[in-house]
Amino acid sequence: MSDYVGIVLVSHSPQLAAGLRQLLGELASDAVRVVAAAGTEDGGLGTSYDLIAGAVAEADGGAGVVVVPDLGSSVLTAVTVLEDEHRPGVVLVDAPFVEGAVSAAVTAATGAGLAEVVAAAEEARGFRKL
């Protein structure tokens, strides 16, 4: 069992999710489970129910899981997975993909609880760059 909240990156693009996962690996502790559920089973662009369900299970170390989708059908597919395969402590966040994932992972790396990690991800929507 992990003391850290896990992160699932749900994206249409395996390359986009892999790049973000790499970035999170540099910014957050290796103890935070960051799992990509990106593209289709054959590596193409799209979303996959099975990849998302598997990623949630893999990221769940017992402290909860934050699911960060990119857009469109990744949100819809993630909602369907979480409704069909309900797991306590798994939260789909309404956050910008990159900024939300960074905020979630960095906050999770401090050992923060699920509610705090969810709040950090969702608060990233208000971050200004300029």
Describe it.
With 130 residues, the chain is α/β, with parallel strands linked by helices. The protein is 46% helix and 15% strand. It contains 5 helices and 4 strands. It has a 4-stranded parallel beta sheet, with helices on both faces. Helix 1 packs parallel to helix 4. It is globular and about 35 Å long.
Short description:
It is built from five helices and four strands, in the order βαβαβαβαα. It has 130 residues and is of the alpha/beta class.
What keywords describe this structure?
130 residues, alpha/beta, 4-stranded parallel β-sheet, 5 helices, 15% strand, globular
What's the helix and strand layout?
Elements: E1 6-11, H1 14-27, E2 34-38, H2 49-59, E3 65-69, H3 73-84, E4 90-92, H4 97-109, H5 114-123
Parallel strand pairs: 1-2, 1-3, 3-4
Helical content (DSSP H or I, runs of 4+): 40-55%
Low-confidence stretches: none
Estimate the strand proportion: 5-15%
Report the major sheet.
4 strands, parallel
Number of distinct beta strands:
4
Identify the overall geometry.
globular
Question: Could you spell the SSE succession in H and E letters?
Answer: EHEHEHEHH
Number of helices: 5
